[in-house]
Recover the amino acids of this structure.
């Protein structure tokens, strides 16, 4: 009987289940009601004397080996993953697919690198902010209609706490804590109470910029932003500044870059030849004063841009929701090492 047990053990050692049907055959042959194991246990009943102990042990080992082998192959077939080859050390390892950087991170890093070349350093601030840093210090008085443009999420359990609607709040924190000259960019996530559509989302990302020193002029702003636009979109890029309004800058402007269609007309620029990419302006003296900086001695400019928008223009992405869906088919198309 011991010989039989050992022979079956050998058979099992070289067994491989290529599919569920083969595994089921294995189960019936060895573990089924009339299978080898039950037959052996029947025979075992007749054994008496010294051999009983040894054969009993052998039978129990066989039983464990059979059920372990069955479970292992069942697990492999159900999950589609190969069973770890415990006894084949020459088998190639399982490969782990490499991920890629998110398009928002790629563009954020690119923006940071461009301003890094102009000597700008990076600052960050909290996403949960107070009214002062998001609105009041930036010249948005309570009840001012400009606040309506940036409806946000309020935290009821913590009065005076809001999710920041723009990275301009970090400007305030920087000016409150760093003495001029200041030359910084501030990337980060922002939140607005917006209906989600192809063009807007309640979560998105911005990069804020701030330059404060003695006698900074609008010409410096223009030159800096033109450098940025050409580095980002190519050296033939033109910029256009249109007068606009922000409570914290005076004068204020929106900056457009020329569309690659050269005004011939395309869907992206809606046949205007221009694409709006950011807001900017000279920091309002009130804001400087709110942050403890002497407006008679210092002046400066600020700008803010949406990363999603710039990435949409660069990568021709048509729907902002794609950034947040985590669909690998979308994400794996971005291979930049930036
Ligand atoms: N914070 C503005 C927004 O989210 C963008 C902006 C405009 C930032 C002008 C600035 C600026 O720093 O000077 O709409």
């Amino acid at each position: 009987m011991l010989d039989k047990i050992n022979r079956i053990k050998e058979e099992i050692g070289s067994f491989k289940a290529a599919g569920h049907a083969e595994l089921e055959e294995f189960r019936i042959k060895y573990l089924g009601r009339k299978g080898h194991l039950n037959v052996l246990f029947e025979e075992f009943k007749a054994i008496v004397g010294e051999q009983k102990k040894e054969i009993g042990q052998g039978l129990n080992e066989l039983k464990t080996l059979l059920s372990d082998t069955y479970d292992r192959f069942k697990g492999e077939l159900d999950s589609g993953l190969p069973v770890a080859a415990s006894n084949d050390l020459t088998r190639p390892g399982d490969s782990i697919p490499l991920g890629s950087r998110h398009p928002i991170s790629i563009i954020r890093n690119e923006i940071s690198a461009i301003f890094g070349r102009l000597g700008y350093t990076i600052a960050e601030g909290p996403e949960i902010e107070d009214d002062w840093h998001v609105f009041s210090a930036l010249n948005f008085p309570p009840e001012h209609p400009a606040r309506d443009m940036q409806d946000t999420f309020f935290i009821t359990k913590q009065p005076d706490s809001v999710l920041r609607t723009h990275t301009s709040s970090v400007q305030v924190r920087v000016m409150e804590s760093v003495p001029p000259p200041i030359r910084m960019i501030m990337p980060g996530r922002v939140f607005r109470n917006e209906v989600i559509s192809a063009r807007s989302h309640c979560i998105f990302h911005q990069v804020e910029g701030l330059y404060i020193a003695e006698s900074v002029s609008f010409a410096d702003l223009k030159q800096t932003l033109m450098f940025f636009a050409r580095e980002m979109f190519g050296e033939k890029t033109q910029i256009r500044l249109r007068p606009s309004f922000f409570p914290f800058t005076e004068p204020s402007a929106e900056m457009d870059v020329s569309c690659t269609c050269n005004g011939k007309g395309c869907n992206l620029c809606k046949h205007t030849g221009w694409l709006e990419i950011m807001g900017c302006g000279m920091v309002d003296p009130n804001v400087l004063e709110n942050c403890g900086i002497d407006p008679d001695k210092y002046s400066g400019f600020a700008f803010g841009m949406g990363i999603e928008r710039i990435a949409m223009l660069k990568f021709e992405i048509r729907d902002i929701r794609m950034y947040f869906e985590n669909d690998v088919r979308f994400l794996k198309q971005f291979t930049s090492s930036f």
